[in-house]
Amino acid sequence: MTQAPLNFTPLDHALLNRRVVDTRSLREGVLTAVLVEDGEPLAYVRGDDHREFTAPPAALRAVR
After folding, report:
1. Could you tell me which of 10, 12, 17 has the C-alpha nearest to residue 45?
2. Cα three-residue angle 18-42-10, rounded to 5 degrees
3. CB 42 within 8 A of CB 19
4. pTM (two decimals)
5. Other C-beta atoms within 10 Å of 5: how many?
6. Contact predicate 46/33, CB 8 Å
7. Inter-residue contact 20 to 31 (CB < 8 Å)
8. β-strand partners of 14
């Protein structure tokens, strides 16, 4: 049985390549990409520890 390939569509975002905070987890980092994965937008953020985490784009705010 073969699986259908995942569908990834990149989105433009006003905070791309800027420091952001995920308001749900309070983790901070640099927004590296926003993709639509199987119909849902998902933001990729590289944290200060250089580990990437994901968050809903609506939960991101610019760090002041």
Report:
1. 17
2. 75
3. no
4. 0.85
5. 6
6. no
7. yes
8. none
